[in-house]
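Lab notebook page, bench 4
Experiment: in silico fold of construct C2
Operator: M.H.
Input chain length: 317 residues
Purpose: comparison with the prior construct
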Amino acid sequence: MTIHRLKFFVLTSVFALIGMAGQAQAVDKPVAMVTQTQGTVEFSKDGEKWKEVSRNKLLGEGYQLRTAADGSAKLINQTNNSTQNMGASSVVKITPDGIEKISGTLSAPEQSSGDLLENLDKRFAKAQRYTTVRRSVDKSKTTRLDTITEISLSPQYPELVWSNVGPEFSYELVINGKSTPIPASTSTDEIIRYKVTGLTPGKHTFQVNLLQDGKEVYAPKKPSTLTWVDGEALKPVEKGLKSMQALAPGDDFMVGAFLEDHGFTVAAMDMYRKYFKSNPNDVDMRPMLIKTYHDLNLKNLQKNEAVQYQKMLSEQE
């Protein structure tokens, strides 16, 4: 039995034990984002237990935010893409329509440039679909390898990824009919990575075939689509990314959300992973990472992350 099949059976047992965890209530979709905090700024889900906002934070309906005498923050309203400044000694509540002042000072809304947050709530709602932990069906006798069906890459973000099926398998990456052999990996990492180079801007076809002892054991029925973004097509992305980084400086999560919105799914996954490595207790936005695992067909990582997500939700109750 390979190490990857052993992992499968372990996961199956875990799912059977925590099958009811999927009943835990997930956080509502984000309505506002806190950024550019100074001094003491805290958030609460119930108005009783408060936690410090040490960096940028996404808030859903019902959350409250307060500042101490030395505190201030900028709030980005997801519902209308506007920004507001929150002064010292203030309290606000997040409502379905945006931000409601309870006490203190909150500036009038100012329209934010661009659509940097326009689709975040829709993508978050979609991401919730992939967080339910279900019993797994034993597919250990079926050897296959699935990849993402559509993806954008660029000179800055050139990597394709797929699942590491096991050390007894190698791979054949085919781009526009040109084959590149990828040797078997002895690593226990769940992901195989490959940096793509030499493509012209525009759409290309790719697929990853699975080989064992040099013979093909699985090939997808049809190729996937890779869009290489460079030159003039890359400029709007670079401009938007700079705007996002200025709007939410140092926020890897929001950079990941921006990249995902533009089809750079691998880069988005990496930014989400970086964010949660630095913020391991932030459960609210983990569905976005789970969604990238789903989209990239990294099934084991998706299942593991869903287990962790449901466990963290249960511990909050």
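Observations: The chain is about 30% helix and 30% strand. Helices lie at 3-17, 120-127, 235-247, 252-261, 265-278, 286-295, 299-316.
Next step: discuss at group meeting.
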